[in-house]
């Protein structure tokens, strides 16, 4: 992402907005939020990991006219502390397979942070 300043700016802006706006924070745990392009972003659970107890989500930022940013924000939510943790920024071509090296790194970060596994 170092070479994509536009994408970096969009990601930082959305994270700053989320930090300041309770409505954005609340939407980050609403599976399917923004799928219809009614919001500036789309939220979805990482379903394969949810099924095995990980509270991991992905966020896609929409860009006009009907496309999306080349990167996704992968984050986790810790209900005990009410905190969100950005675990990775991945290219949109990332396939989310559970045996992928990036997935392994994301799960390691999740576990290292001590986030609850349900």
Automatic annotation (TrEMBL):
<protein>
    <submittedName>
        <fullName>Uncharacterized protein</fullName>
    </submittedName>
</protein>
């Amino acid at each position: 992402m170092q070479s994509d300043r536009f994408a970096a700016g969009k990601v930082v802006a959305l994270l700053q907005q989320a930090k300041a706006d309770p409505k954005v924070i609340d939407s980050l745990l609403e599976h399917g939020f923004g799928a219809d392009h009614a919001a500036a972003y789309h939220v979805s659970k990482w379903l394969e990991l949810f099924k095995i107890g990980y509270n991991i989500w992905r966020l896609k930022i929409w860009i006009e006219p009907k496309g999306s940013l080349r990167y996704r924000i992968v984050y986790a939510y810790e209900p005990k502390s009410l905190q969100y943790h950005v675990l990775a920024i991945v290219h949109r071509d990332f396939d989310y397979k559970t045996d992928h090296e990036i997935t392994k790194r994301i799960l390691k970060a999740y576990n290292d942070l001590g986030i609850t596994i349900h």
